[in-house]
Write a structure and sequence with these properties.
Structural class: alpha+beta
Number of strands: 11
Strand order of the largest sheet: 1-7-2-5
Strand content: 25-35%
Shape: globular
Distance between the termini: 49 Å
Radius of gyration: 18 Å
Amino acid sequence: MITLSSAFTPPIRHPKTSFLSRSILPKNNDYLWKIEQGVVRIVTWHEDGTIVTLGLWGVGAIIGTVLSKTEPYQIECLTKVELSAVEIQDSSELLQILRLHLQRTEELMVIRSHKTVEIMVIKLLEWLANRFGREVDKGRLIDLRLTHQDIAETIGSTRVTITRILQKLEEQGFIQRLRLHRIMLREEDIWHYEI
């Protein structure tokens, strides 16, 4: 339950719950989830079934159906995820959560606003590398099992177009596609690609 009070009270944390990759979190309007491990994506869909990605969230993020009026609204685990339920007791903490959600939403809106799908893919890969990547010898590894369909749904494109663009970027040496749908981004090369 989200309760707003004038005195600061630390959030109440509940025992951790684990979910497997590609599972859907149960809807609950009584509390929020704090991501302790893993990555989730929040999606909705149009009447024709087209999936729209509303956000990607990782460790430390607070998520939940109570933060949105969008219907339908679904939270899907992109990796194995460990969550703890959180009851927010303080309005300043709720404000911080809402501010972060707004910032991440704006970041995705800017990525989707580029004129070509190719630039959207590059910008999304950079964003994913900064948020969820880790440094490796030859660049930055996006260690998420994102399918071409996942990427397409994030930027509003098609799987076929994403496959073609990723093949082109790999042939040009800007990325390296690895097993399990992981991508290594050669950031210096990508920066030069955009100029």
